[in-house]
Design goal:
Blueprint: H1 2-18, E1 24-26, H2 27-35, E2 45-50, H3 54-63, E3 67-69, E4 77-82, E5 85-94, E6 100-104, E7 107-112, E8 120-123, E9 126-129, H4 133-141, H5 147-161
Helix pairs in contact: 2-5, 4-5
Length: about 160
C-alpha cells in the first residue's frame, strides 16, 4: 500500500501546510524519505506536531476526511484513518533544556536536543518535512520489546547507515 500511504501523506501534509501547522514525518516513512526509496512495507504514516496545536491539527485532519481512531496513549498521540491509511500523530512540547520532549503523563522525556528544523525531502513526487536523520538513527538504534518492532528498526537502521 505504499502508493496509498504516500497519497495520504501528501494530502495531510498539504492540508497542514495550508493551515500553517508545523509537522514532521518520522518512523519508517521518515527513513524512506531520507534514503530516497521505499525500503520496506509500512503499516502507518507517523507524524509529529506540537501539542499546543493539537486542536488545530485535529480540525485539519477531520476537514480532509480523517476519521479519528484508537491510540495507546491519548495524552501523547492521535490516530486517523484517511483513504484506508492509518496516520498516527505524536505530540511534542518544547524541552526546557532546548530541543523537543515527549509529554508523558509522568513527566516529559527529552526526545531530541535540537530544534527539528525545516528539512524537506522528496520521495516519489511527495515532499515532506522530516525529522533530523540523527533523530531517526537514535530511535532506530534503541531496543523495543516486540521482536517484529525490533526487526523493523534493524532494517530501518541498516537503510539509514547503508
Amino acid at each position: 500500500m505504499p502508493a496509498g500511504q504516500l497519497r495520504a501523506l501528501a494530502t495531510v501534509g498539504a492540508a497542514l501546510d495550508a493551515a500553517g501547522q508545523d509537522w514532521w514525518l518520522f518512523g519508517g516513512w521518515g527513513v524512506d524519505f531520507w534514503v530516497g526509496s521505499v525500503s520496506r512495507d509500512h503499516t502507518d504514516v507517523d507524524l509529529v506536531a506540537w501539542q499546543s496545536e493539537r486542536a488545530a491539527v485535529d480540525a485539519v485532519l477531520r476537514a480532509i476526511g480523517g476519521t479519528p481512531g484508537e491510540v495507546d496513549d491519548p495524552g501523547l498521540g492521535a490516530a486517523y484513518e484517511l483513504d484506508r491509511c492509518l496516520v498516527e500523530l505524536t505530540f511534542l512540547v518544547p524541552s526546557a533544556a532546548g530541543g523537543v520532549s515527549l509529554p508523558f503523563a509522568d513527566g516529559p522525556f527529552r526526545w531530541w536536543p535540537e530544534p527539528l528544523g525545516e528539512q524537506r525531502r522528496t520521495l516519489s513526487g511527495v515532499t515532506a518535512r522530516v525529522v533530523p536523520r540523527g533523530l531517526l538513527i537514535q530511535d532506530k538504534a534503541g531496543r523495543r520489546g516486540d521482536p517484529s518492532d525490533q526487526a523493523k528498526d534493524a532494517a530501518d537502521l541498516w537503510a539509514l547507515l547503508g
